[in-house]
Automatic annotation (TrEMBL):
Protein name: MOB1A kinase
Coiled coil feature spans: none
Molecular function in Gene Ontology: kinase activity
Gene label: Mob1a
SMART domains: Mob1_phocein (SM01388)
Name of one Pfam family that matches: Mob1_phocein
Keywords of the record: Kinase, Metal-binding, Transferase, Zinc
PANTHER family noted in UniProt: MPS ONE BINDER KINASE ACTIVATOR-LIKE MOB
Superkingdom of origin: Eukaryota
Binding site for Zn(2+): C87, C92, H169, H174
Organism: Centropus unirufus
Length: 224
């Protein structure tokens, strides 16, 4: 069974000093999904991201998308965890990606009508919601032979669409902090991998990507 690990990202700042961000989601060692994750890491090491995101021969598309979705959740968790002290109720009273894009939270179950909230609150809602989906064995089965549900692809698309918003917020509102921490190369590589992956399988609507369209085009043109 997929378990949560104790490897959490402690946040040492202000009112959140005793709080940790989301725990890392572990893929069980020895499982087929673990082998797929190792394959993904090995092909990433080759430096060809377009090739690295392609479905490995003979593999199940749902399983490939599941493994990578978990990996992106962990990456974004870690990246956001490094800048939480700069993303506060005061600095980010709304969840935005630049002046033209603002996000309101709704999960369709606990909060049905979208609510306006601060970026840290929104991202906390978002990451908690994603983790709940990843921990649901009926949605993300970790055992071999357990089928993915019929709605898996639409759930995965919603997760990735929402994770994109965290990248968009970091780039628009906190890139100066990322640069001060000398993490821009890490952020850019992670985002480029994410974008190439969602483009390969057409997982996020182009309109949703609009807040970072220029950056996406730049990353894509460098790779041709």
């Amino acid at each position: 069974v997929t378990g949560r690990t104790g490897n959490v990202f402690s946040i040492v700042s202000g009112s959140r000093s005793s709080k940790t961000f989301k725990p890392k989601k572990n893929i069980p060692e020895g499982s087929h999904q673990y082998e797929l994750l190792k394959h993904a890491e090995a092909t990433l090491g080759s430096g060809n991201l377009r090739q690295a995101v392609m479905l490995p021969e003979g593999e199940d598309l749902n399983e490939w998308i599941a493994v990578n979705t978990v990996d992106f959740f962990n990456q974004i968790n870690m990246l956001y965890g490094t800048i939480t002290e700069f993303c506060t109720e005061a600095s980010c009273p709304v969840m935005s990606a630049g002046p033209r894009y603002e996000y309101h939270w709704a999960d369709g179950t606990n909060i049905k009508k979208p609510i306006k909230c601060s970026a840290p609150k929104y991202i906390d809602y978002l990451m908690t919601w994603v983790q709940d989906q990843l921990d649901d064995e009926t949605l993300f089965p970790s055992k071999i032979g357990v089928p993915f549900p019929k709605n898996f692809m639409s759930v995965a698309k919603t997760i990735l669409k929402r994770l994109f918003r965290v990248y968009a917020h970091i780039y628009h509102q906190h890139f100066d902090s990322v640069m001060r921490l000398q993490e821009e190369a890490h952020l850019n590589t992670s985002f480029k991998h994410f974008i190439f992956f969602v483009q390969e399988f057409n997982l996020i609507d182009r309109r949703e990507l609009a807040p970072l369209q220029e950056l996406i085009e730049k990353l894509g043109s460098k790779d041709r």
